[in-house]
C-alpha cells in the first residue's frame, strides 16, 4: 500500500504538534511506523490521503456506531447548522437528548452535558467528593477515565497501593488520593473499603475495561462493588463513556443488571461530535451548580451540533432489532477470527461485550491489567501492520478495543477474516 502523502503530512505535523498528533495513541508509537492521515470516511470504510480504502474497526475510538457520515446524522446537522452553532444559552435540543439518556439509563435521574469523556469523569468525581465530603477515590488498574490529574494513576503491583502518578505534572499530593486496585480483585477491594471507607468518596470503574483491550467483569465482581459501596455510603460511578449505548442500548449497567449511583457517558452520545455527560441520583446531581454548591461549567456544553448528532444517533439506535443485528455481525466476526487463529495455530484469546472486542496474543486468560500484559506485543504489532496492508484498520495498540458499526456488512467481515488468515499465517 502506498502511503507517501501520509508520510509527508506526518513529517510536517511533527514540527507543529507534539508527536504530530492531537491525541497520543494516534501516532502509532505502540506498533511502529507512522500514522495514516485521513481524507474522509463513509459507512464502514475510511480513506487516507493517498486514496487507500480500509475497513474501519477504530470508528473514532467508538463513537461511530452508525458507521461514518450516516445520512440521517449528516442531514440533521446540515439543517441545524443554518441556525447558528452555539449560543451559550439553553436550547430545546438539550432537553431532547437528556430525555433520551434518562429513559435509557434508569440510574440517571438528572444529567449534565459536557464536551468530553474526561470532563464527565472529572466532574462526576468532584460531585461525589462534594456530596460525601470525603477526598479519596478508588479506581482499578488499567481503567482509563480520561486525562484528569487524579485519574492518571494505575499504581504498582500488590493488592492495593496508594497512588503514584503515571505522568509528570501530576502532583504527588493529588495522586495520593487515588487508591488503585486490580480489576476483578474482590478481596483487595473489600480490604481497602473496610479499612478506608470513612475517607472514600467514590469508586470509579469501566464496567467492561476497553482501555486495556476488552476485559470482562467476573461473575459477582460488579455486584460486590454495588453492595459494598451502598453499605459504606460510597458513590459508585460507572464510567460508560465507551460502553454506553455500545455494549447495549442501556450500556453495561443494563447488560449486567447493576444500578450505579452515577454514570459518565461520551463517545456514542455525540455521534462523532465532541461530547460527554454525567448524571445519576437526583440527590447527588442536585449538588451541581447552580442547583447546588459544586461548581462545573462549559462555554460550549450542550451545543446544538453535538446535541443534534447525539439525538439522531440514539434515534436510530433505539429502533427495533438494531442491537440484535449488531450482535449478529459481531458474532460472525468473532467466530471467523477464532476460527482462523485455530487453523493457523496462533495462540490467541478473544473477548467481547456487545460490539466491543479484542484479540490478545496470549494463552493466558485475561482478567485484569497484569494478564492483559501477557500478550505478545511484537506479534500484535506485526498483525496490526499486516492487517493494515490488507486494508483493515485496527486500533494501533494491543491495549485498545475494536468496534463494529451497523454499516459493517458480512462482505466486510469476510474480507477481514480472509486478511486475518493471510496475516496470521505470515507472522
Ligand atoms: C474515551 C474514554 C474517556 C475519555 O473520553 P474523552 O472524550 O477522550 O475525554 C473516559 N473514559 C473512558 C472509559 C473512555 O473510553
UniProtKB/TrEMBL annotation:
Homodimer. The modification N6-(pyridoxal phosphate)lysine is found at residue 267. One of its GO terms (cellular component) is cytoplasm. Pathway: Porphyrin-containing compound metabolism; protoporphyrin-IX biosynthesis; 5-aminolevulinate from L-glutamyl-tRNA(Glu): step 2/2. Its cofactor is pyridoxal 5'-phosphate. The gene is hemL. This is Glutamate-1-semialdehyde 2,1-aminomutase. The keyword Iron does not apply. Its main location: cytoplasm. Its EC number is 5.4.3.8. SUPFAM superfamilies: PLP-dependent transferases (SSF53383). InterPro entries: 4pyrrol_synth_GluAld_NH2Trfase, Aminotrans_3, Aminotrans_3_PPA_site, PyrdxlP-dep_Trfase, PyrdxlP-dep_Trfase_major, PyrdxlP-dep_Trfase_small. It is found in: Cytoplasm. Keywords: Cytoplasm, Isomerase, Porphyrin biosynthesis, Pyridoxal phosphate. One of its GO terms (biological process) is protoporphyrinogen IX biosynthetic process. Gene3D superfamilies: Aspartate Aminotransferase, domain 1 (3.90.1150.10), Type I PLP-dependent aspartate aminotransferase-like (Major domain) (3.40.640.10). It catalyses: (S)-4-amino-5-oxopentanoate = 5-aminolevulinate. HAMAP family: HemL_aminotrans_3.
Amino acid at each position: 500500500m502506498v502511503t507517501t502523502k501520509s508520510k509527508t503530512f506526518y513529517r510536517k505535523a511533527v514540527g507543529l504538534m507534539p508527536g504530530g498528533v492531537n491525541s497520543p495513541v494516534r501516532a502509532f508509537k505502540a506498533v511502529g511506523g507512522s500514522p495514516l492521515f485521513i481524507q474522509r470516511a463513509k459507512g464502514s470504510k475510511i480513506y487516507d490521503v493517498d486514496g487507500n480504502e480500509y475497513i474501519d474497526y477504530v470508528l473514532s475510538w467508538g463513537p461511530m456506531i452508525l458507521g461514518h457520515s450516516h445520512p440521517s446524522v449528516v442531514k440533521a446537522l446540515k439543517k441545524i447548522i443554518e441556525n447558528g452553532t452555539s449560543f451559550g444559552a439553553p436550547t430545546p435540543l438539550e432537553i431532547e437528548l437528556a430525555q433520551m439518556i434518562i429513559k435509557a439509563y434508569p440510574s440517571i435521574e438528572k444529567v449534565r452535558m459536557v464536551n468530553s469523556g474526561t470532563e464527565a469523569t472529572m466532574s462526576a468525581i468532584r460531585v461525589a467528593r462534594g456530596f460525601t465530603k470525603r477526598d479519596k477515590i478508588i479506581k482499578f488498574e488499567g481503567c482509563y477515565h480520561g486525562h484528569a490529574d487524579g485519574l492518571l494513576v494505575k499504581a504498582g503491583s500488590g493488592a492495593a497501593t496508594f497512588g503514584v502518578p503515571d505522568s509528570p505534572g501530576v502532583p504527588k499530593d493529588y495522586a495520593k488520593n487515588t487508591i488503585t486496585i486490580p480489576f476483578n480483585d474482590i478481596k483487595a477491594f473489600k480490604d481497602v473499603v473496610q479499612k478506608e471507607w470513612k475517607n472514600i468518596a467514590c469508586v470509579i470503574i469501566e464496567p467492561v475495561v476497553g482501555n486495556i483491550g476488552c476485559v470482562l467483569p467476573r461473575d459477582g465482581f460488579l455486584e460486590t462493588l454495588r453492595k459494598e459501596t451502598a453499605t459504606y455510603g460510597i458513590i459508585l460511578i460507572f464510567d460508560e463513556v465507551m460502553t454506553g449505548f455500545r455494549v447495549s442500548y442501556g450500556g453495561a449497567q443494563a447488560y449486567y443488571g447493576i444500578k450505579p449511583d452515577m454514570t459518565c457517558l461520551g463517545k456514542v452520545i455525540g455521534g462523532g461530535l465532541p461530547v460527554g455527560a454525567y448524571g445519576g441520583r437526583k440527590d447527588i446531581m442536585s449538588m451541581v451548580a447552580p442547583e447546588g454548591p459544586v461548581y462545573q461549567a462549559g462555554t460550549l456544553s450542550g451545543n446544538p451540533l453535538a446535541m443534534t448528532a447525539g439525538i439522531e444517533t440514539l434515534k436510530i439506535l433505539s429502533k427495533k432489532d438494531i442491537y440484535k443485528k449488531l450482535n449478529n455481525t459481531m458474532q460472525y466476526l468473532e467466530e471467523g477470527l477464532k476460527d482462523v487463529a485455530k487453523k493457523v495455530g496462533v495462540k490467541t484469546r478473544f473477548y467481547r461485550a456487545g460490539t466491543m472486542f479484542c484479540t490478545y496474543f496470549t494463552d493466558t486468560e485475561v482478567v485484569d491489567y497484569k494478564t492483559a500484559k501477557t500478550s505478545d506485543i511484537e506479534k500484535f504489532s506485526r498483525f496490526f501492520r499486516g492487517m493494515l496492508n490488507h486494508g483493515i484498520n485496527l486500533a494501533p495498540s494491543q491495549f485498545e478495543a475494536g468496534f463494529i458499526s451497523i454499516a459493517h456488512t458480512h462482505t466486510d467481515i469476510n474480507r477481514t477474516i480472509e486478511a486475518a488468515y493471510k496475516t496470521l499465517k505470515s507472522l
